[in-house]
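INTERNAL AUDIT FORM
Audit reference: QA-55
Scope: verify that the stored structure record matches its stored sequence.
Auditor: D.O.
Record contents follow.
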Amino acid sequence: MIVYQGDPAAWEAPEHGSAVAIGVFDGVHLGHRRVLSALPGGNSGLTRVAMTFGTHPAAVLAPDRAPTRLSTLKRRFELLEASGIDRIAVLGFDESMRDMASDEFVDRFLVEGLNTRFVAVGTGFRFGRYAAGTTDTLGDLGASRGFRVEVVEIARHEDEEIRSTLIRQRVESGDVEGAASMLGRPYEMEGVVVPGDGRGRRFGVPTANVSFPAVLTVPAEGVYAVVVGIDGSDHAGVANLGIRPTFDGTDRVLEVHVLDSNMNLYGRQIRVGFVGRIREERRFASVDELLTQIRSDISAAEHILDEQTS
């Protein structure tokens, strides 16, 4: 996978031209995939490029309202590649880009940087200084510079538009099933397994404490059926996300118990896919009561995951 970054004058533009989808593509949800699928296929001779942003534009435009992320940048790359993208152009949204005129953006990044022949964007796409550039602006600039523009209608699930903001709300409320219906897969968090207090192993239910990036959207506290990705293989699991009130915890922790393995995961990068919410987190009167509930949670997780695969 070729990734373009920095000054577009230094990019090696595709000789026969490129077809470019532009967007943040956070999470690469079903709405994003609709835009990506609008790009011409391989028989067109064009290189399929996703143009995205390393930093969400809102982090510059309105830092206090900048959203959390539905995926890390690395995971976004993987999902874009799985969607048939050949190359990725990562733009650093900063003060200079915020103030860049619409025609300068098109000339620098699309024409000179990528030798663009086709552009796909979603309805409502804005660009350039003061977000003055619209899809009509882009179409007019494309007509004078040799590329065609397709504006893709927002995808819908049932009666709702598929938008990253709505998916974040679903995740944060614990409705991971609703989020998955718009993502096209379970919502995922990934991070490195770090040492914990070892309490789970002493109780016969070893857990991996996952240190995840602070920028990720965090589901509501509770217990979830999860799929754990370890070195390319998926494993059934149950996760607790919360402060562990039975033990007077104060810090939010993501603990994962892998059902079919007892491997040592310390220091390893794992991915946790949230398939279904089992219950809220709560305080138990005793360790025995907690362990009884954990056994029930494991059975519930197995049932949820079996339903997903049947």
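Auditor finding: record pair retrieved intact. The mean pLDDT is 90.
Action required: none
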